[in-house]
């Protein structure tokens, strides 16, 4: 659950929780893509829980199969298509089985999905989940059903998400939906619609309830958390001008973060994703001010070359990005950063590529998520630019970027060795059931032997004595 994006070659993750004993129908719900999709799946499960569905991990016993899909790269879509084809036999055996597609692919492909995939009965975009009960009634009557209307207001603020398959320790809390940035490569503004912020009272309420229910860490989620702005609802662009908006502005992201940190003072707090052109110094100051906010920022950069950043419409330069990182390191001395990179964007030269590598070295990221550019239909880059970097060049450059990040990660991990870290116990180590796994404030994963009396959700002091590329090895000292 902690990975930022699920590997797009891998099948999605299915999570289940039996909620209401009186429910008789079974829902198999699988999520693909980013953390936002996992969070949305919890909202979907909650809505359907009220409609007689409990979730199941066994697709054979499902009355309803839903895939919450991702469109970010072509590969992600192919994986979902493959997965759908696996339900063909099941559908033959069980004619009453309903198969639905949710999320970004539903939004992008709309009715095309119903035409292309005979198997699919239901297509629902990310802002239309409240309509699921009505749509399911239509499918029960034997008709296909679709709702892909995007909203300027929907934040599902009042829906209490069913926490799916989590560890009972960490949870996501959505604070914004949609995106108003138009990065030229990105499909998200088309699939998730206009940006809108959720009512801060409902956010605080959800955080408090999570704490009361034993949760120890929350991640505030949005495509661009830094553009969070609450002034009573609606979209930012509904206001005629900045002055008009300013007058009504009540709360921005740094203020929200501060409020959450105060409202749940013992809860560990993370947030994702930050956008360099919107992130402010204030956010670093709030991190520095509160013990319970983790010293880690995921700050996608996509490229180290100004020429490419401009073609991507990222709205900041290499220097501005580096200045922001520098400020972060000054204000929060032991802060860590991770990146997203797109390799081989339209017109990327060897020189641009070298600038990406040199930027990475300068920042010394803890971790990175790196992708070869994948052209998405309908995006500005698709319409106006040529995807002209040959596939083998993209792959070679990608391999170089991944190798460099590996080196940087190892170096960063090694810098944590010989020190004591506060680790939140989040689960059992995959490799050794006698060991716990958790993360430090900087988001580095740490494994260590279990001791008597320790349990999931405890924060323990761990002395780190070694590391691999991605993991710290330690032992408890308290
Ligand atoms: N809102 C986030 C990112 C959303 S998409 C931000 O501010 O950056 C997650 C990541 O997928 C992006 O950061 C980018 O690195 C990658 N991505 C998006 N579109 C892509 C494309 N067409 N090809 C390859 N990678 C892409
Ligand atoms: Fe996509 Fe850029 Fe928004 S990467 S999600 S358009 S900030």
TrEMBL record:
Residues holding [4Fe-4S] cluster 2: 179, 183, 186
PROSITE patterns for this protein: MTTASE_N (PS51449), MTTASE_RADICAL (PS01278), RADICAL_SAM (PS51918), TRAM (PS50926)
Domain Radical SAM core: 165-411
SUPFAM superfamilies in the cross-refs: Radical SAM enzymes
TRAM domain location: 414-478
E.C. number: 2.8.4.3
Residues at which [4Fe-4S] cluster 1 binds: 34, 70, 104
Reaction it catalyzes: N(6)-dimethylallyladenosine(37) in tRNA + (sulfur carrier)-SH + AH2 + 2 S-adenosyl-L-methionine = 2-methylsulfanyl-N(6)-dimethylallyladenosine(37) in tRNA + (sulfur carrier)-H + 5'-deoxyadenosine + L-methionine + A + S-adenosyl-L-homocysteine + 2 H(+)
A Pfam entry, by short name: UPF0004
Location(s), subcellular: Cytoplasm
MTTase N-terminal domain residues: 25-141
GO molecular function, one term: metal ion binding
Keywords: 4Fe-4S, Cytoplasm, Iron, Iron-sulfur, Metal-binding, S-adenosyl-L-methionine, Transferase, tRNA processing
Classification via SMART domains: Elp3
GO cellular component, one term: cytosol
Cofactors: [4Fe-4S] cluster
PANTHER family, sorted: CDK5 REGULATORY SUBUNIT-ASSOCIATED PROTEIN 1 (PTHR43020), MITOCHONDRIAL TRNA METHYLTHIOTRANSFERASE CDK5RAP1 (PTHR43020:SF2)
Family stated for the protein in its record: Belongs to the methylthiotransferase family. MiaB subfamily.
Subunit and interaction comment: Monomer.
Function: Catalyzes the methylthiolation of N6-(dimethylallyl)adenosine (i(6)A), leading to the formation of 2-methylthio-N6-(dimethylallyl)adenosine (ms(2)i(6)A) at position 37 in tRNAs that read codons beginning with uridine.
Record-linked HAMAP family: tRNA_metthiotr_MiaB (MF_01864)
Protein name in the entry: tRNA-2-methylthio-N(6)-dimethylallyladenosine synthase
Gene name of this polypeptide: miaB
């Amino acid at each position: 659950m902690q990975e930022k994006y699920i590997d797009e070659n891998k099948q999605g993750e299915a999570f289940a929780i039996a909620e209401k004993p009186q429910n008789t129908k079974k829902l198999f719900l699988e999520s693909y893509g980013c953390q936002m999709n996992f969070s949305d799946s919890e909202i979907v499960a909650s809505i359907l829980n009220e409609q007689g569905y409990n979730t199941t991990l066994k697709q054979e016993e499902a009355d309803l199969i839903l895939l919450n899909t991702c469109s970010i790269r072509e590969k992600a879509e192919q994986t979902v298509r493959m997965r759908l084809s696996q339900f063909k036999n099941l559908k033959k055996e069980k004619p009453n089985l309903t198969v639905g597609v949710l999320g970004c692919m539903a939004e992008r492909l709309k009715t095309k999905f119903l035409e292309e995939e005979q198997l699919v009965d239901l297509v629902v975009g990310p802002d239309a989940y409240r309509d699921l009960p009505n749509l399911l009634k239509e499918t029960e009557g034997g008709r296909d059903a679709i709702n892909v209307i995007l909203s300027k207001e929907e934040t599902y603020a009042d829906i209490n998400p069913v926490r799916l398959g989590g560890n009972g320790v960490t949870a996501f809390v959505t604070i914004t939906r949609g995106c108003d940035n138009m990065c030229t490569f990105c499909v998200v503004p088309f699939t998730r619609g206009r940006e809108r912020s959720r009512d801060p009272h409902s956010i605080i309420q959800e955080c408090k309830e999570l704490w009361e229910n034993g949760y120890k860490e929350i991640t505030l989620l949005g495509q661009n958390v830094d553009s969070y702005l609450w002034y009573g609802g609606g979209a930012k662009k509904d206001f005629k001008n900045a002055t008009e908006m300013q007058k009504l502005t009540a709360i921005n992201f740094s203020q929200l973060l501060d409020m959450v940190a105060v409202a749940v003072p013992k809860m560990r707090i993370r947030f994702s994703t930050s956008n360099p052109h919107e992130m402010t110094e204030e956010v670093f100051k709030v991190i520095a001010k509160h013990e319970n906010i983790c010293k880690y920022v995921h700050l996608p950069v996509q490229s180290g070359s100004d020429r490419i950043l401009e073609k991507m419409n990222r709205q900041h330069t290499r220097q501005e990005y580096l200045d922001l990182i520098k400020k972060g390191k000054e204000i929060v001395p032991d802060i860590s950063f991770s990146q997203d990179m797109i390799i081989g964007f339209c017109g990327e030269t060897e020189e641009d590529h070298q600038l990406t590598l040199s930027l990475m070295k300068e920042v010394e990221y803890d971790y990175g998520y790196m992708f070869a550019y994948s052209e998405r239909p309908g995006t500005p880059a698709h319409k106006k630019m040529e995807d002209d970097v040959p596939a083998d060049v993209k792959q070679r450059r990608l391999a170089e970027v991944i190798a460099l990040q590996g080196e940087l990660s190892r170096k960063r991990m090694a810098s944590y060795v010989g020190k004591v870290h506060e680790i939140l116990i989040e689960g059992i180590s995959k490799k050794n059931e006698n060991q716990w796994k958790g993360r430090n404030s900087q988001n580095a994963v740490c494994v260590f032997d279990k001791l008597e009396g320790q349990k999931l959700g405890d924060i323990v002091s761990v002395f780190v004595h070694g590391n691999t590329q991605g993991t710290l090895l330690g032992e408890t000292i308290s």
